[in-house]
């Protein structure tokens, strides 16, 4: 079946994240974002795509040059739409959505309490463009503090328990968002399997 070219989200599962920022006046903003990806395995960079560069989140992170990406589990699914609504910049969206703040370690902007992981980021670069006269931006952040709940992370091998974390995901349809999560297949392949000598050239990065 052939479908319209722009309907990629109908076939690609996307993570649901909360991005928190502070306004120049210190007002706390939270918004859900799904168009997000790490930039290559050895880098500490992460990229967020935002449509319409006049959003509060974009204005705040451009001004403050910092933001937090909080990764929620399924239990926070009911907080997505309250933080997605367009409200005046002076509205504290933590209070609007009934979310609690998680103090950050390296930046002033707080994260969202109750999530399973948090990325404190400093702004690295903004790439602002237009496509068919529609403005969008790619925001590249440098992760300066990465934190994960102790009960889901295995320090010995760096793996994490997705069944316990129940990361919030979504797929799209013609009428809206369908929330879901992921399931561990219990199938493992080492990075070294990609290389002729069976050795991962980046293995040293993961050694303490």
Automatic annotation (TrEMBL):
Flavoprotein found in the keyword field: yes
UniProt keyword list: Flavoprotein, FMN
Molecular functions per Gene Ontology: FMN binding
Designated name of the protein: Flavin reductase like domain-containing protein
Database matches in SUPFAM superfamilies: FMN-binding split barrel
CC cofactor: FMN
InterPro entries, sorted: Flavin_Rdtase-like_dom, Split_barrel_FMN-bd
Family designation: Belongs to the flavoredoxin family.
Flavin reductase like domain residues: 9-162
Highest taxon listed in the record's lineage: Archaea
Organism field: Methanobacterium formicicum
Species lineage: Archaea, Methanobacteriati, Methanobacteriota, Methanomada group, Methanobacteria
